[in-house]
User: Which sequence fits this backbone?
C-alpha cells in the first residue's frame, strides 16, 4: 500500500517543492532529484483533457529507470491567506496501472452519501456526485466558492453554516439532523449529517469534512408510525359519528394530505339498519373536511350536504370494490371525474390542476361499509406511494371501527331513551294531594343511558305515592330493568301497602329474579335503589321508606330547607334486612324533593357539600315549581354528569275539614239507616244532591257489610275532592271480594252493584284493620 503515502507538492508555477518517501518508491526519484524540477519533466505524456480542471485523473509518469508508470492522481489546492491557490498537494488516489480514477476516488464519487470538503473559511474544496446533485451545480462551479453563494439564504442554510464554523472553532466533530429541501430538489428530505475537522500531518486544522445521509425513508417510516400511534388516542375520543370523522381529518391534515374529506352513507347517521352500497351513482353526505393551509379553495360540497359520485370516480370505486383506490392525472377515470367537477364548481379548477395524487379509502368495519375518506396531495408534494396506501388503509380502518362504535352507541342510546320515555310518566295524573314538577336528564357519557325513574301514583283516599329509583348500570338492560321495577311498584302500590311493606315485597321480587337468572348472568336489578313515599292531604302526613336511596329534602313554607332524617335500608336484592318507615307531618305548601344520586354524586365531588347546595337551591325564592326545578339543576348538577339525573318536586296541599266528613258507626243493624241519612244531609250541604242515589246505595252496602262481617270500630268517611270518595273502615283484616251470586241467593250482589255504579273501588289494609272505598265522578268533572 505504498501508493497510499505517495504525495508531492507543486507550487503555482508547476515546480515540485515537496516529495514524499512513497513518491520515491513509486517513481525511483529521490527527493533531491525531484524537488526543483517542473512537474511536466516527470510526465511521460500530457495528462488527459479535463483532468487538470477536475484536479483528478490518470497521469503517466516516467520512472527513473526509463519505464513508465500510470498513476491515478488527485490534486488538492493549497490556499493562501487571500484565498487564492498557492500550490497543490498531489496524491495517488488508486493503484498504479488502474484505468481511470482509482478505487478510492471512485468510492468517493459513487457514494450514496452526500460528501464534501470545506476549507476553514467554509469554501468548497471537493464534492462528490451526490453532493453536486443536491446543490444542483457541478464540482468545477463550486470549488472555491463560499457556502452561502451556492445555497439559498434561509434558516436551514444559516444553521448549516454555523455548524461548519463551530467545527473550525472547536476542532470537534458534530452530528445533527435536519429536514429540509436542497437547492436542486423538489421535496424536503431528512438528513443525518456528520461534520469533522480535517488536519494535516502536523496536526493543524486545514478544513472540514462532511458526509450527509439521506434518511428520508426512515423519517417517513417514523412519521407513519407516529401517525398510527397518535391515531390510537386521537380518533374515537367520543362516541359521536361526526366528531370521529373530524378527528380523522384533523390527523390527516397537514402531515398526510393537502385536502381531506369524510363522506358517509345516510343510514350511518340515523337509526336504520345497514344498507348495501348502490351499484351505480352513490349519494354520500359530507360530515368532515379540511385543508392544509389558508387560501385553499372552498370545498365544493358543504358540511351536511349530500353529493352524488359517479361510478367511475375514486370514492365510488373505493366503496364498491371495498379497497383503497389510488389515482391521479393521466388516469382516464380521474381525468373524466375532474372534468365533471370543473363543470360543477369551476372556481376550484386551478386547484384541481395542481393535484398530484388522490387516495380514496373505504370506511369498513365488521363487514359493513359506511363511507369513504378521500385524501389529496397537490404540487409540489410527491404523489402517494404504496407505503402511503398502507398507512391510509390502517388509519381508515381504525376510524371506521370508531365510527361504527359511535353509530352502534347512538342506536342503542336512542333505543334505550325511547324505551325509557315510554316507561316514564308522560302526563302525571290529576290529583289534589300535590302539585308536581319534574326533570329527567339522560346521561351523555359513553356508558349510556342509566336506569333512573320516577313516578307519581294516585292512591285511594286522595293520597298520592311519590316514587324515585335508580338501577345500577347503563344501556338497554338497565332501562329494561327500570321498566320491570316501575311496573312492580305500581302493582304493589295498587294493593295500597305501607312504604316499608312495599319495599319488602319489592326486595323479595328482586331476590327471586336474581335467583331465577342463569349462572354467571349479570342481574341488573341487584343493587337498585328506591324511595317510596305516601302523602295524605287529609292528615298532611308523609310516610316514606328508602332502599339504599338518598334521603329527600323538604322546604317548609317559611323557606327553611332540610334533609329528612331517614333510616335508609339496604339496596334492593340484598335481602334479609328490614326496611323502616319514617313519618312526618307537613304544613300545606311544603315542597318535597326526591332525586337520584346523579344530581349530587360525581367523581371527585363531596356529597355532603352537594347536599348542602341542594338545600340552599331549594330554599331560594322561585316564581313556580318548574322554575325551582331549573334552579336546582343549574346550581347542584355537575357540569358533565356521568349518570342520569331525575328530580321530582311535590308541593303539598291539604283538604280542610269542610271537604271531609267522618262518622263513627255502632255495630248494630239499626245504625245503617241513621248513617245513610247523615251522609245524605252532608251531600246536601255540599250541593251534591245529584250523587245522592248512588252514594246512598254505596253507604248502605259498605256499612251493612262492615256491621255484618267486620269488627268494631266502624267508621264512615266522605271526601269531596275531584271525585266523591266513600270510605268505610273496620277492625277486621279480612278483605272483601266480588263473587257471582246465583239466581236464588239472598245476598252477594252488593259489591257487584258498587263496582258497577262507581268509577273504581277497592280495599286497603290499615294498622287496625281495613278500609273499603269507592269513588264516583262529580257532576261538574
Assistant:
Amino acid at each position: 500500500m505504498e501508493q497510499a503515502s505517495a504525495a508531492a507538492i507543486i507550487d503555482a508555477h508547476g515546480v515540485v517543492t515537496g516529495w514524499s518517501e512513497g513518491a520515491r518508491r513509486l517513481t525511483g526519484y529521490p527527493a533531491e532529484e525531484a524537488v526543483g524540477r517542473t512537474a511536466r519533466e516527470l510526465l511521460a505524456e500530457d495528462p488527459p483533457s479535463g483532468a487538470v480542471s477536475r484536479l483528478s485523473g490518470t497521469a503517466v509518469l516516467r520512472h527513473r529507470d526509463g519505464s513508465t508508470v500510470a498513476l491515478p492522481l488527485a490534486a488538492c489546492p493549497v490556499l493562501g491567506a487571500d484565498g487564492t491557490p498557492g500550490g497543490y498537494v498531489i496524491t495517488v488516489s488508486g493503484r498504479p496501472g488502474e484505468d481511470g480514477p482509482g478505487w478510492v476516488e471512485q468510492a468517493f464519487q459513487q457514494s450514496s452519501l452526500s460528501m464534501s470538503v470545506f476549507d476553514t473559511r467554509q469554501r468548497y474544496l471537493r464534492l462528490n456526485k451526490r453532493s453536486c446533485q443536491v446543490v444542483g451545480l457541478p464540482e468545477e462551479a463550486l470549488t472555491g466558492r463560499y457556502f452561502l453563494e451556492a445555497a439559498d439564504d434561509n434558516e436551514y442554510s444559516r444553521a448549516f453554516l454555523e455548524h461548519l464554523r463551530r467545527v473550525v472553532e472547536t476542532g470537534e466533530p458534530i452530528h445533527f439532523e435536519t429536514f429540509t429541501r436542497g437547492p436542486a430538489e423538489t421535496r424536503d428530505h431528512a438528513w443525518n449529517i456528520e461534520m469533522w475537522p480535517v488536519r494535516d500531518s502536523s496536526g493543524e486544522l486545514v478544513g472540514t469534512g462532511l458526509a450527509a445521509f439521506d434518511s428520508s425513508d426512515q423519517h417517513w417510516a417514523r412519521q407513519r408510525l407516529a401517525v398510527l400511534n397518535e391515531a390510537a388516542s386521537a380518533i374515537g375520543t367520543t362516541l359521536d359519528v361526526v366528531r370521529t370523522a373530524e378527528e380523522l381529518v384533523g390527523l390527516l391534515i397537514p402531515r398526510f394530505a393537502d385536502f381531506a374529506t369524510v363522506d358517509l352513507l345516510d343510514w350511518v347517521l340515523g337509526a336504520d339498519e345497514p344498507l348495501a352500497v348502490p351499484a351505480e351513482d352513490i349519494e354520500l353526505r359530507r360530515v368532515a373536511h379540511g385543508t392544509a393551509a389558508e387560501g385553499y379553495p372552498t370545498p365544493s360540497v358543504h358540511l351536511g350536504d349530500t353529493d352524488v359520485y359517479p361510478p367511475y370516480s375514486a370514492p365510488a370505486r373505493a366503496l364498491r370494490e371495498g379497497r383503497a383506490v389510488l389515482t391521479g392525472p393521466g388516469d382516464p377515470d380521474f381525468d373524466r371525474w375532474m372534468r365533471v367537477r370543473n363543470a360543477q364548481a369551476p372556481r376550484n379548477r386551478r386547484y384541481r390542476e395542481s393535484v398530484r395524487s388522490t387516495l380514496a379509502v373505504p370506511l369498513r368495519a365488521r363487514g359493513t361499509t359506511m363511507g369513504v375518506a378521500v385524501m389529496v396531495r397537490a404540487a409540489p408534494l410527491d404523489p402517494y406511494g404504496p407505503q402511503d396506501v398502507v398507512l391510509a388503509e390502517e388509519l381508515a380502518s381504525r376510524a371506521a371501527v370508531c365510527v361504527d362504535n359511535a353509530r352502534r352507541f347512538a342506536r342503542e342510546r336512542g333505543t334505550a331513551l325511547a324505551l325509557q320515555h315510554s316507561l316514564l310518566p308522560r302526563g302525571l295524573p290529576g290529583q289534589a294531594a300535590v302539585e308536581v314538577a319534574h326533570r329527567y336528564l339522560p346521561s351523555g357519557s359513553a356508558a349510556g343511558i342509566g336506569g333512573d325513574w320516577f313516578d307519581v301514583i294516585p292512591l285511594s283516599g286522595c293520597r298520592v305515592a311519590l316514587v324515585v329509583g335508580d338501577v345500577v348500570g347503563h344501556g338497554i338492560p338497565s332501562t329494561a330493568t327500570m321498566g320491570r321495577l316501575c311496573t312492580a311498584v305500581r302493582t304493589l302500590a295498587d294493593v295500597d301497602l305501607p312504604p316499608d311493606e312495599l319495599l319488602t315485597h319489592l326486595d323479595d321480587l328482586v331476590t327471586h329474579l336474581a335467583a331465577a337468572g342463569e349462572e354467571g348472568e349479570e342481574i341488573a336489578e341487584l343493587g337498585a335503589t328506591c324511595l317510596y313515599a305516601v302523602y295524605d292531604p287529609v292528615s298532611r302526613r308523609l310516610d316514606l321508606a328508602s332502599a339504599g336511596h338518598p334521603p329527600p329534602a323538604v322546604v317548609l313554607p317559611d323557606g327553611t330547607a332540610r334533609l329528612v332524617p331517614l333510616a335508609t335500608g339496604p339496596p334492593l336484592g340484598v335481602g334479609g334486612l328490614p326496611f323502616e318507615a319514617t313519618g312526618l307531618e307537613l304544613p300545606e305548601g311544603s315542597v318535597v324533593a326526591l332525586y337520584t344520586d346523579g344530581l349530587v354524586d360525581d367523581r371527585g365531588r363531596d356529597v355532603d357539600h352537594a347536599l348542602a347546595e341542594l338545600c340552599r337551591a331549594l330554599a331560594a325564592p322561585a316564581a313556580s315549581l318548574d322554575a325551582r326545578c331549573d334552579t336546582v339543576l343549574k346550581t347542584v348538577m355537575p357540569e358533565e354528569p356521568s349518570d342520569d339525573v331525575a328530580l321530582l318536586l311535590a308541593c303539598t296541599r291539604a283538604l280542610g275539614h269542610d271537604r271531609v266528613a267522618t262518622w263513627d258507626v255502632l255495630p248494630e243493624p239499626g245504625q245503617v239507616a241513621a248513617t245513610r241519612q247523615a251522609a245524605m244531609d252532608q251531600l246536601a250541604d255540599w250541593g251534591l244532591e245529584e250523587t245522592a242515589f248512588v252514594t246512598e246505595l254505596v253507604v248502605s252496602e259498605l256499612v251493612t257489610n262492615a256491621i255484618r262481617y267486620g269488627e268494631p270500630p266502624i267508621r264512615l268517611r266522605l271526601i269531596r275532592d275531584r271525585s266523591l270518595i266513600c270510605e268505610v273502615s273496620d277492625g277486621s283484616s279480612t278483605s272483601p271480594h266480588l263473587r257471582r251470586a246465583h239466581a236464588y241467593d239472598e245476598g252477594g250482589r252488593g259489591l257487584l252493584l258498587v263496582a258497577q255504579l262507581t268509577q273504581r273501588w277497592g280495599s286497603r289494609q290499615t294498622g287496625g284493620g281495613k278500609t273499603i272505598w269507592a269513588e264516583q265522578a262529580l257532576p261538574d268533572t
Observations:
- The chain has a mean pLDDT of 83.
